[in-house]
Amino acid sequence: MQTTLPKVRLQSEYPVKKVVSPQIELPAEYILVEKAGQGSFGEIYKIYNTITKTLHACKVEFKDSRQQNQQSLLVKEYNTLMQLKGIQQIPQPYQLIQQQDYKLIIMPFYGSGNLEELRKKQQNEKFSETSIIRLTYCLITAIEAVHERKFVHRDIKPENFLVGSYGDHHTVYLIDFGLAKPYLDQQGIHIPQADNKGMVGTARYTSINSHLGAEQSRRDDLEAMCYVLLYLYNGLLPWQNFSCQTRQEKFLKILEAKQKFAAGQLEINIPPILKQIYDHSKGLRFDEQPNYAKMKEICKEGLNKSRPYCFDWCAQDCKFKPYDDMNDGFSELASEFSTFRKQQRGQTTDQISTNIKKIQPFKQIEEEDEESINEFPNVQKITKFYQNKKH
Fold first, then answer.
1. Where is the Protein kinase domain (predicted)?
2. CA–CA separation, 189 vs 183, rounded Å?
3. What residues are annotated to the active site?
4. Looking at the predicted structure, is the pLDDT value of residue 227 above 60?
5. Would the pLDDT of 164 be above 50?
6. How far is it between the farthest Cα atoms of the chain?
7. Residue 278 pLDDT > 70, yes or no?
8. Which of 73, 195, 212, 285 could form a disulfide with 41 if both were Cys (CB 3.0 to 4.6 A apart)?
9. At a CB cut-off of 8 Å and minimum separation 6, what does 361 contact?
């Protein structure tokens, strides 16, 4: 079996490419390579450092006249990332650059793609149960690390998990913290439970409580994680592809389907280990700490009889392995490729100049249930719409 990872050259081998119709400033040593994706509120570009000969990611937020009086979500994300500094599973930003018409963050680049892109490359466009169990372990570990820093992510979805480049391809990184929020105040007191907040996150994966407009906490990240893993395992969720006239009607149908699933009234293939973790997340109180250790132990038990380290995207004779003993998947990798891993991550220069290069804004259309939403629609409108549909 061949690996489904892209054939990635050493980053020092990437040639400098032409920039087409540039419209934003880049530091002088960077050259635009191509658009790499779309975040919850910004655009992602692959850029090349001509000095260090390495690839990096550049996340751009363009000025929106409708949000002139609101805090920049990119600046908010940068501040959150600085508070998450040192977590192995979270890419660390190199620099924040602020200009009048846009803001950008320069970050590490991971070349294997996100979980949605890797899913599409698998047989039947879905992951095996073995890979799902390993992924469950890795995703719990990443989310736990964020929760330990007093934040909830609030936008867990396949596109927000990146896999490291070849040589680092057992590592899964959690990205896009534009919707993240502290769940503890400065005194360590849990935020109060609240309603009428509006849905936050991505409708396809967000928790039932989020659909109902409730304040999110740690349990909601875990519930959303279970929907993500369920999607990656089946290649489709029962609440996809609804035909509706309005976004609100579509979101209500998604909510009803999730409620039926939670009540055991909706049939879908789900690995027993994932079902245990889902039930645990649904049984948590608003301010209750999840039992991360127990959930990871359940995953370990499921991996003992199969290849414990590799995913479906690995080659059958994968030579890159973590330490021989079972670990959390994110500690320092084996010495045979630890140096290679550092090369893949690249380094940034201490001084970044401000010569001008520019990038043209890019428009991308997404399905409504795949789009990240910040407190929309309001729960009062949902309730009223729902009542009207019942009568």
1. 30-298
2. 8
3. 155
4. yes
5. yes
6. 66
7. yes
8. 73
9. 23, 43, 62
Kindly tell me if the per-residue pLDDT of 65 is higher than 60.
no
Decide if pLDDT at 264 tops 70. Answer: yes
What architecture does CATH give domain 115-334+374-385?
Answer: Orthogonal Bundle (1.10)
More confident residue, 49 or 370: 49
Question: Phi and psi at residue 235, in whole multiples of 5°?
Answer: 80, -5
* pLDDT band at residue 41 using 50, 70 and 90 as cut-offs: confident
Six-digit token string for 195: 């309603």
CATH for 11-110+341-347, among 3.40.50.150, 3.30.300.130, 3.30.200.20, 2.60.120.260?
A: 3.30.200.20
Domain range annotation of the chain: 11-110+341-347, 115-334+374-385
Contacts of 376 (CB under 8 A, 6+ apart): 198, 199
Smallest CA-to-CA distance from 346 within 176, 170, 164, 173 is with 164
